[in-house]
């Protein structure tokens, strides 16, 4: 921790708590996807680093759904979060001045994207979306990119006449509440198939290198040998780490550098924050998400 703090202070030419003189506390929002306690545990190290770097109390919030984090950012009660591309677009559409994207996660191959992965139980006999006709399909959260927005756009193009309306191609379409909930629901046989997010790299048996499946494997929730991939989206731009625009510039600089260097200074902490193996984070701007903003606006019309 001292190594990380020293690097942050050296870069920003600040010392002690002076860098936080314009803020009284710093609040980190953690997007849904797994149970709240697991999310808080994964981010605790980042919270500790933040408290030492800024010299103020740090609070972490893990709302039940994506909208809780989005509204916190819009209302100024959350200062930083790692959003999905769609949830970032949702915040931007409501208030373009609320947050700014600063960093994006890097996959082990140097890419910045991930996929919406459709999956089912292996013993169900379902091997593709062709086998899902008349079955129950699960989305995660309506503000999720991979858990709703992208599959709801791409799956209807998979086969002529397919819509996401319950009782049409699928017998029913349900929102489970999040990625972990979808994985558990499929694994338990409560729904026949669903979608979640993964980098799509590495071994299926490990839940790939990074994403919700990897987190579920690490938590001992599933054995990937019991599941099978049945669909994969086109590459999706990884969601950004965002900071509230109204924060003092020095605070934004400190937090950007802290997260940017986390992979090098504390790989174990970075693993938890990034939901698996990665090469850390790189700078990113709003321009990377213009297509997602357009897709979300089109979906709303």
From TrEMBL:
Protein name from the UniProt record: Phosphonate transport system substrate-binding protein
Biological process per Gene Ontology, one example term: transmembrane transport
Signal peptide: 1-20
GO CC annotations on file: ATP-binding cassette (ABC) transporter complex
UniProt keyword annotations, A-Z: Signal
Similarity section: Belongs to the phosphate/phosphite/phosphonate binding protein family.
SUPFAM superfamilies in UniProt: Periplasmic binding protein-like II (SSF53850)
Keyword Signal: yes
Species for this entry: Celeribacter neptunius
């Amino acid at each position: 921790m001292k190594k990380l703090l020293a690097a942050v202070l050296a870069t920003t030419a600040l010392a002690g708590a002076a860098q936080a003189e314009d803020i009284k506390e710093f609040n980190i929002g953690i997007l849904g996807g797994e149970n709240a306690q697991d999310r808080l545990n994964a981010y605790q190290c980042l919270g500790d680093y933040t408290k030492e770097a800024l010299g103020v109390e740090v609070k972490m919030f893990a709302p039940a759904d994506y909208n809780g984090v989005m509204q916190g950012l819009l209302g100024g009660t959350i200062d930083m979060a790692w959003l999905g591309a769609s949830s970032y677009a949702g915040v931007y559409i409501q208030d373009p001045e609320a947050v700014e994207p600063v960093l994006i996660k890097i996959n082990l191959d140097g890419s910045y994207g991930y996929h919406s992965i459709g999956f089912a139980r292996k013993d169900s006999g379902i091997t593709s979306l062709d086998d899902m006709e008349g079955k129950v399909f699960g989305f995660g959260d309506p503000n999720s990119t991979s858990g709703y927005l992208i599959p709801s756009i791409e799956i209807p193009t998979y086969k002529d006449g397919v819509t996401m309306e319950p009782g049409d191609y699928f017998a029913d379409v349900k929102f489970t509440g999040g990625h972990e909930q979808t994985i558990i629901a499929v694994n338990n046989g409560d729904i026949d198939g669903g979608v979640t997010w993964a980098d799509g790299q590495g071994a299926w048996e490990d839940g790939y290198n990074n994403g919700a499946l990897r987190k579920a494997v690490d938590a001992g929730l599933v054995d990937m040998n019991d599941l099978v991939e049945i669909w994969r989206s086109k590459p999706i731009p990884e969601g950004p780490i965002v900071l509230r625009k109204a924060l003092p510039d020095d605070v934004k600089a400190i937090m950007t550098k802290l997260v940017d260097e986390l992979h090098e200074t504390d790989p174990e902490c970075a693993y938890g924050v990034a939901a698996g193996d990665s090469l850390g984070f790189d700078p990113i701007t709003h321009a990377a998400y213009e297509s997602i903003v357009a897709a979300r606006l089109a979906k709303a019309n």
